[in-house]
Amino acid sequence: KFMIRVMRYRYFIVLLILPVLLGLKKIDFKGYKDPDFLDYKIETTILCFGSTTMVLEEAFTKSFAKQKDIKNLNWIRCDDVFPPTRDWTGETRRTQALKLGYQSILGIGINFEASGDATYTSYGDGTAYSSAMTSQSEWEIVVFDMELQKKVWVAKVGITNKGTFYANNAKNDGKALAKRLVSELKKSEMIN
């Protein structure tokens, strides 16, 4: 009888500790649509990243491609349109995107500001905090219209991970962020 109690106690402890070890992921997401673009729909876009890890970018892109809600969206990776072999200015990016038939850029961790005929693009990695059991990162996601040179939609995103499974796991962050982004774009009627 004593051994049965000990075993039950051990199972109870394992069940209590398991969620902490495996972890919890929380994504705070707030999107803002510019009032001048309430009817805007993304039909063609270039998916670009700021200073992210290749692991996060690859996981995000693979997950993004698998989302059923983007089946009508014509999209391409940034490096396929703007190869890193040259220095791109705002105007040369605009010309190249429009020449290839892309109406917008969907930027993760990129800020766009238009001034005159040129677009200033800055790259940022958001803010990040991490430890062995917790990680937190914040991102800005922008839909930028290439022809009009204006931000159409902006989202502020915070990802908090707790536990050893999710903390500091860029691959899981990329997958979760892609899935949530598509859901939010659908909810805000940016995609069909």
List key phrases describing it.
192 residues, 5 helices, alpha+beta, seven-stranded mixed beta sheet
Structure description:
The protein is built from five helices and nine strands. The chain has 192 residues and is α+β, with helices and mostly antiparallel strands. Strands 1, 2, 3, 4, 7, 8 and 9 form a seven-stranded mixed sheet that branches. A two-stranded antiparallel ribbon has the order 5-6. Helix 2 (54-66) crosses helix 5 (170-187). The longest helix is centred in the first third of the chain and has 21 residues, at 2-22.
- Counting DSSP E segments of at least 2 residues, the number of strands comes to 9
Low-confidence stretches: 114-130
Strand count, sense and barrel status of the largest sheet are:
7 strands, mixed
Radius of gyration: 20 Å
The overall average pLDDT, rounded, is 80
Q: Helical proportion? A: 25-40%
Tell me what portion of residues adopts beta-strand conformation: 25-35%
Task: Give the overall shape.
Answer: elongated
- Give the assembly state of these chains: single chain
Order of helices and strands: HEEHEHHEEEEEEH
Structural class by SSE content: alpha+beta
Distance between the termini: 62 Å
By DSSP (H or I, 4+ residues per run), the number of helices equals 5
Write the layout of secondary structure elements.
Elements: H1 2-22, E1 24-33, E2 44-49, H2 54-66, E3 74-77, H3 78-81, H4 90-99, E4 104-108, E5 110-115, E6 118-123, E7 127-130, E8 134-145, E9 150-162, H5 170-187
Parallel strand pairs: 2-3, 2-4
Antiparallel strand pairs: 1-9, 4-8, 5-6, 7-8, 8-9
